[in-house]
Amino acid sequence: MRASISHPDKLFIGGRWVAPASGATIEVLNAATEELFAEVAEAGADDVDRAVAAARAAFDEGPWPRMSPQDRAGPLRALAAEIDARAEPAALALSCETGMIAGAAQMMAHAPGAIYAKTAGYTDSFAFEQKRQTSPGGAAAGLLVHEPVGVVAAIVSWNGPAAGIAQKVAPALLCGCTVIVKCSPEAPTAGYLLAEACEKIGLPPGVVNVLTADREVSERLVRHGGVDMVAFTGSTATGQRIASICGERIARYQLELGGKSPAVIFDDFDLGEAAQILAGAARFLSGQVCASLTRFIVTTGRHDDFVDALSAAFGATRVGDPFDPAVQMGPLASARQRARVEGYIAKGRAEGARLAAGGGRPRHLDRGWFVEPTVLADVDNGSTIGREEIFGPVLSVIRARDEADAVRLANETAYGLNATVFTHDAERAYERKTVLLEAYPGHLAQT
Predict the structure, then answer these.
(1) Is 155 within 8 Å of 184 (Cβ atoms)?
(2) Cβ-Cβ contacts under 8 Å for 186 (sequence gap 6 or more)
(3) How many helices (H) and strands (E) in the chain?
(4) Per-residue confidence at 434, pLDDT binned at 50, 70, 90?
(5) How far apart are CA 164 and CA 336, in angstroms?
(6) Torsion angle, alpha carbons of 113, 115, 116, 117, to 10
(7) What's the domain range around 107?
(8) DSSP per position, 311-366
(9) Which of 8, 261, 309, 347 is the most exposed place for a label (fewest CB within 10 A)?
């Protein structure tokens, strides 16, 4: 299988397909077979400068930011249709680049088009300009205007590239910004498909530019004085560095980072039911999801029974070729990611956790970056695997003395992002949800 993109050896800058200054390329391997899926142009420092110059000119001199939001909504709707028309190659890329099973990839491939279309609809509900009376009787009036920020660098992660790009690019475009999309070397296809769609609808040159680059070159984009805002999805460590760099030059930034999300299972909830729900969720994208629930907290008297139920449910997962309809979980996205996950499993066992299920490579798979669905029991909440995001199919079960201790353990983390309470008592769920929300200001706690 090969990526279906029209100009893999080029970058999309200023509305044209251009060769990278260095001629360098990046090989993208199929996560399940380790065979070549695509070979794409690799951007260097000079290419970043060219892309920023194009986006800067499009914003400072071009028509896009001077159009009304209603006029920009039309191209967004056209972009939605063109992106949706490319759903088939987008789904293929999701499975080959990230390991997502084909059924899920086919559904996810239609999400970006829906995001562009929905965003275009905000022109009917959002007041981009509001008149304000500033003196009694209306003798003086003011005008509140929501203006575009400028040039936005959209740096997207490899685990959900198509939707991730749309979530950043669509609102930026509607507001009149120009954009440089920096794709991950592991999953660049979605960026190429966006560029093809932009070319097809005749978006003004420089409004959207698309590059694929590794970390060092990406930092040049973050540091560039011509970039007004950085929108980033990825690891917390990288997000901290981006925030620091943007702080140095007083640039705006928006970060979507990692998580180590807890599920607290109260004593009134059936352990088998909880295990089935949590195991099913953990299979999605082989656990390579920032909001995944990965720390499961139960009272000590129910710990072992829950470990058994979870091991049976998660361990029964059918792992293999993501294009096989019978398969429930595919590989990890890269050799580096598999090595990272295997390292965490080893570290967990070395620090005293008990391996209850999985822990290695599936015996029936001799190629591809697969890891067995893994359950670790008796995990110390302060241990490495209790604290750090693993980003793979590894679940940790933690003992709590009682309900209050379970909530304390859930909140004892540097992360926010997500949390869940399993109980059939609505009042108790609401009470504990409030406690979790207070612990995670600005984040969502689910019940």
Answers:
(1) no
(2) 28, 97, 98, 158, 333, 334
(3) 15, 17
(4) low
(5) 21
(6) 80
(7) 11-123+147-256
(8) HHHHHT--BS-TTSTT-SB---S-HHHHHHHHHHHHHHHHTT-EEEE--S--TT--
(9) 347
314 and 334 fall within a common domain = yes
- Please say which residue of 256, 276, 297 terminates a domain: 256
- The length of the chain is 447
**246 flagged as catalytic:** no
Looking at 34, 39, 219, 256, which residue is catalytic?
256
The CATH number of whichever domain residue 184 belongs to comes to 3.40.605.10
Of the three residues 211, 228, 256, the one that is the final residue of a domain is: 256
| Active-site residue (options: 175, 290, 372, 389) | 290
Residues in a beta bridge with 209: 180
One-letter amino acid of 398 = I
pLDDT tens, position by position, 182-217: 999 999 999 999 999 999 999 999 999 999 999 889
The C-alpha atoms of residue 413 and residue 61 are separated, in whole angstroms, by 47
Domain identity same for 219 and 85: yes
Report which residue type is found at 27: E
Task: Answer yes or no: is 3 within a domain.
Answer: no
Q: Does 444 fall in a domain?
A: no
pTM over 0.90: yes
3-state secondary structure of 285: helix
Catalytic (active site) residue 175: no
Whether the CB-CB separation of 369 and 341 falls below 8 Å is answered with no
How many alpha carbons fall within 13 Å on the CB side of residue 228?
Answer: 15
